[in-house]
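Hello,

Our lab assistant flagged a job as stuck in the queue for most of the afternoon. It eventually completed. Since we weren't sure the result was trustworthy after the delay, we are filing this so someone can double-check. Below is the sequence as submitted and the structure that was eventually returned. Let us know if re-running is recommended.
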Amino acid sequence: MQRLRSRQQFQAVLANAPVAKTPHFALHRLALGNAEGGSPLFPEPGPWLGVLVPKRWARRAVTRNAIRRQIYATAPAAHALPDAAHVVRLRLGFDKARFVSASSPALKRAVREELLQLWARALPRPAPAAPGHVA
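-- returned structure --
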């Protein structure tokens, strides 16, 4: 899985509406074309992942880095993600009264649980097996 690095890559993905949301996170996706030469923004095929954790919603660097680490840790394996560019964006800060410490185990656990929900909503579900005749 490749990581998004440039501002242009992030802008291209964020121009699309979110494909999944939770109370604190949004997942944006940009489908990549199957062109021979690839896109100039995304030269290599496969899934791309970027993380956007603004200072506005997580003031302390410790908190931003902990959230960023949780996003990369919970991201599905490359073979489970569609060939697209993904950006996980923090869209609301966590309650400072509930999570007093900048990087507490409780905060990490809450972030992880919410991110797992986000990925579950965003990934295509396998089609249920149709009832049929079994010989």
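-- support follow-up --
The delay was a queue issue, not a problem with the job. The result is valid. The beta strands are 2-3, 18-21, 25-31, 48-52, 84-90. The mean pLDDT is 87.
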